[in-house]
Amino acid sequence: MKFKKGDTYNVRFVVSSDVYNGFITVFNDHNPLHTDESFAISKGFKGRVMHGNILNGFLSYFAGECLPEKNIIIHTQSIKYNQPVYLNDVLNFEAKVEDVYESVRAVEFSFSFRNKDSKVVSKGKLQIGILL
Amino acid sequence: MHMERNELLKQINDIFIDVLDNPEISLTENTNADDIEEWDSLTHIQLVVEIEKYFSMRFTAMEIQSWATVGEMINCIAAKTV
Question: How far is A121 from A131, CA to CA, in rounded Å?
Fold first, then answer.
């Protein structure tokens, strides 16, 4: 396997209008927290809060496109949304290989997304399997 | 480190309960994947990973493939803890 404990990967993501609008078009989540600026501000946020699951899409891109092997499958993932993400935020994603389980061809990562202020907006764990 | 088989069985049982999210699981040495609905190919990977973590040991793919029952799993763990 082309993975070893301690390997790190960094990817930069932008929550662009295309990503935001595409997510709403595909999944139809028009909750006012995500779509109504004044509603979101009335709840104490700086503006519309981006759907947390947009970050799951970035995670999918990381697993599918940014690893040294393409023959992978996601087994499990867990994710926490620590801080709100806003439209056009630039997120620096970092994933670290926490362990490699050769016996079952599995690799565990910890990951985080940080905003431009270096605040962790989201973090979690990801386990992938390497297909035979 | 040497552990009695029944102690290993109890520890593995706790891992199964946690990973398979089923507090009703009560393993015996003869239990196999057909006996537990939640024990499928994906959860098997999670079980192996958690067992490797818990006992701080590593298995080979060949060892895992040789396990038909929980008892055979215990054989393998016990051999590595002697």
Answer: 31
